[in-house]
Specification:
Subcellular location: Mitochondrion inner membrane
Helix content: 55-70%
Membrane topology: Single-pass membrane protein
Strand content: under 5%
Number of helices: 9
Oligomer: single chain
Structural class: mainly alpha
Keywords: Membrane, Mitochondrion, Mitochondrion inner membrane, Signal, Transmembrane, Transmembrane helix
Protein name: LETM1-like protein-domain-containing protein
Organism: Phycomyces blakesleeanus
Number of strands: 0
Distance between the termini: 35 Å
Largest sheet: none
Length: about 200
């Protein structure tokens, strides 16, 4: 919907440019206007970025005392990690460079000031939390594969070559973590996705 207004202006003023826009700047086009092959290409491009970020975070995990990939693999250990590090991962305490990385990992633009990046990430997470409520209400088992893939990608979950069952398990885990009380700080939630990018949810 956010892309629809600028896309509408382009459509009214320069309609002949739409094919070029779809071909060369697909990120500026509403998803309903993209072919399946273009959506897959976008996801593959984002997956390369995420894999690189995940690799770097896991390699540097030794320098962060007390945090390892195993700490995020189940809600119990995740809760203990959150209790120890929630404060350090509040978005207000994260610098611009890391906020930019967090936005990029979640499929958002990484440009802007620290305040803009924080607002962008907060807005995306607010949307996801509301969407989580709808998924719980309707039942995740009712979602077809394309919707599962879209929901997974929006949450920093890898959907490439994943079947419906594995995506449902991953999304259920996300919902379980975001429903914790006290809540996981937003920065730690995104940071954990980098550790869990290639996780096998059981």
């Amino acid at each position: 919907m956010l892309k629809l207004i600028p896309f509408g202006f382009v459509f009214m003023i320069l309609p002949e440019s739409i094919p070029l826009l779809v071909m060369y700047v697909p990120g500026a086009v509403p998803s309903t206007c993209l072919k399946e092959s273009q959506v897959i290409k976008q996801r593959e491009k984002l997956d390369k970025i995420r894999q690189n970020m995940s690799k770097n975070v896991i390699m540097s995990a030794d320098s962060i005392e007390g945090i390892s990939p195993e700490d995020f693999l189940n809600p119990r250990t995740f809760a203990k990690t959150a209790k120890a590090y929630n404060y350090d991962f509040e978005l207000t305490r994260i610098d611009r460079a890391h906020l930019s990385s967090y936005c990029c990992f979640m499929g958002l633009s990484g440009w802007g000031t620290q305040g803009i990046l924080k607002k962008r990430l907060n807005k995306h997470l607010d949307y996801l939390f509301e969407d989580d409520k709808l998924i719980v209400k309707e039942g995740i088992e009712t979602l077809p594969l394309p919707e599962l893939q879209q929901a997974a990608e929006e949450r920093g979950i890898r959907s490439i070559n994943a079947n419906g069952d594995s995506l449902r398990r991953a999304i259920k885990y996300w919902i379980a973590v975001t429903a914790m009380d006290p809540p996981v700080s937003r920065g730690l939630l995104v940071f954990s996705r980098m550790f869990l990018l290639n996780a096998n949810y059981k």
